[in-house]
């Protein structure tokens, strides 16, 4: 079922205006060559960042500065030879990997001795597009109307003036916020290949330079689209006969081809053609998640929404709420449109439709562990297997979590569910440990 919210005439005019501007922008930059990657550790972390360190890496040939959450390896853990990169799913940030101290994939891995890094791709979380002109502008803070009334007047004129100033400030703030949103929308013009060719390579190079593994390789885990990115890296490098820079890969609920499965994402496919025809610039997944959260208290809608994320009794209610309110971000329509090719014959392809990633997985020799949840409605086990079967048998392992009588695992349960630390995490550690050789 697809819910369509009616737009006011004003909203419609704004959407048309934004679309007309975005239509003239060219999101692709063919022939980009990676330059030296630079980055830095942040002196201070915002409260939302629960990692030990926060780093920023600059993406060459762009203004993007990507956030890397670092969890330093525990001194009590086994000494590891490779750093570990975690990639999140579509339209999500780092929070899904670190929901709470006792429900944190990242914390578990660093306690096992892995130098763990979560990448927030462009447009997600703390990653931002750096604009020199904006950075040089002075920061202006509106004064509190109460500050102008030093005598704390209580007469009618003072109250009316205070209310008027407050209304004026709120109106001005709304206009500024709206303009910022319009400016931001105009910057959301990237696709999957930008992540693959620019963001992930920049992050990997930065981590390599920082950690200095002897063989120059990383271990990597990807959830949902994060796993799709890892598959695509193996495919492209296998096709070219190049070193992928990865020692071993774990994917969680990921596939390059959903055509044979009953994925719930197929309900979104009717939106593809209208989005392409209208040149819709973004899909505000984060705003929609927050807006729909109060509606989710209605029994039927709540059960449908929750089943997409977590199986029954597998995620604490407060963690589910945190995930829904804080984990999701705005998605560029061009990214959504490219990912929709995973539901077409041949599976996911590049932006030009000339390279099908699944076809070339057979040329990779990197060990892969593909994990699935038995009640994952977004990426069912059959979708996961459709991709992993393309990898040479000596390099691929496949496992489905969940039992006929329970417990069951849905899309996010294999990352931050109540029992993930007992079932999923140890399986991942055992696999990575076997391939953590210098």
Give the SSE map.
Blueprint: H1 9-23, E1 38-41, E2 53-58, E3 64-71, E4 84-87, E5 98-100, E6 103-104, H2 105-111, E7 116-120, E8 128-129, H3 132-135, H4 156-187, H5 192-211, E9 218-223, H6 225-240, E10 246-252, H7 272-278, E11 282-283, H8 285-292, H9 299-309, H10 317-326, E12 331-332, H11 333-339, E13 368-373, H12 381-388, E14 396-401, H13 413-416, H14 420-434
Parallel strand pairs: 4-7, 4-9, 9-10, 10-13, 13-14
Antiparallel strand pairs: 1-2, 2-3, 3-7, 3-8, 5-6, 11-12
Commentary on this structure:
Pfam families: Abhydrolase_1 (PF00561). Residues 83-396 form the AB hydrolase-1 domain. It is a single chain. The protein is α/β, with parallel strands linked by helices. The protein has a single domain (42-131, 192-434), classed as 3-Layer(aba) Sandwich (Rossmann fold), CATH 3.40.50. Helix content is 37%, strand content 14%. It has helices spanning 9-23, 105-111, 132-135, 156-187, 192-211, 225-240, 272-278, 285-292, 299-309, 317-326, 333-339, 381-388, 413-416, 420-434, and strands at 38-41, 53-58, 64-71, 84-87, 98-100, 103-104, 116-120, 128-129, 218-223, 246-252, 282-283, 331-332, 368-373, 396-401. The strands form three sheets. Strands 1, 2, 3, 4, 7, 8, 9, 10, 13 and 14 form a ten-stranded mixed sheet that branches. A two-stranded antiparallel ribbon has the order 5-6. The protein is globular and about 50 Å long.
């Amino acid at each position: 079922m697809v819910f369509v919210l009616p737009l006011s005439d004003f909203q419609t005019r704004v959407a048309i205006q934004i679309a007309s501007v975005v239509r003239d922008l060219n999101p692709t930059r063919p022939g980009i060559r990676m330059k030296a990657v630079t980055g830095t550790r942040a002196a201070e972390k915002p409260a939302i960042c629960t990692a030990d360190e926060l780093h920023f890496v600059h993406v060459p040939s762009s203004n993007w500065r990507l956030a890397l959450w670092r969890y330093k390896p525990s001194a009590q853990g086994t000494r590891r030879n490779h750093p570990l990169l975690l990639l999140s799913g579509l339209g999500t940030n780092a929070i899904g990997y670190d929901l709470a101290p006792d429900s944190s994939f990242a914390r578990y891995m660093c306690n096992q001795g892995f130098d763990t890094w979560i990448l927030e791709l462009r447009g997600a979380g703390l990653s931002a597009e750096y604009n020199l002109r904006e950075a040089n502008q002075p920061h202006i803070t509106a004064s509190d109307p109460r500050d102008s009334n030093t005598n704390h007047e209580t007469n009618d004129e003072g109250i009316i003036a205070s209310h008027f100033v407050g209304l004026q400030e709120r109106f001005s703030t709304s206009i500024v916020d709206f303009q910022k949103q319009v400016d931001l929308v105009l910057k959301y013009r990237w696709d999957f290949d930008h992540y693959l060719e620019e963001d992930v390579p920049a992050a990997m190079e930065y981590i390599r330079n920082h950690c200095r593994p002897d063989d120059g390789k990383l271990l990597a885990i990807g959830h949902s689209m994060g796993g799709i990115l890892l598959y695509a890296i193996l495919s492209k490098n296998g096709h070219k006969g190049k070193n992928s820079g990865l020692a071993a890969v774990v994917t969680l609920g990921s596939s390059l081809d959903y055509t044979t499965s009953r994925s719930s994402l197929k309900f979104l496919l009717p939106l593809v053609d209208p989005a392409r025809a209208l040149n819709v610039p973004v899909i505000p997944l984060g705003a929609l998640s927050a807006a729909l959260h109060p509606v989710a208290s209605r029994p039927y809608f709540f059960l449908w929404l929750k089943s997409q994320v977590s199986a029954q009794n597998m995620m604490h209610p407060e963690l589910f709420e945190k995930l829904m309110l804080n984990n999701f971000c705005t998605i560029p329509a061009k990214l959504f449109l490219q990912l929709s090719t995973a539901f077409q014959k041949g599976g996911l392809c590049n932006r030009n439709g000339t390279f099908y990633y699944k076809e070339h997985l057979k040329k990779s020799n990197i060990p892969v562990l593909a994990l699935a949840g038995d009640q994952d409605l977004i990426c069912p086990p059959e979708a996961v297997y459709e991709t992993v079967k393309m990898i040479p048998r000596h390099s691929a392992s496949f496992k489905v979590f969940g039992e006929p009588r329970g417990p069951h695992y849905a899309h996010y349960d294999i990352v931050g569910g109540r029992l993930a630390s007992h079932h999923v995490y140890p399986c991942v550690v055992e696999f990575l440990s076997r391939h953590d050789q210098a």
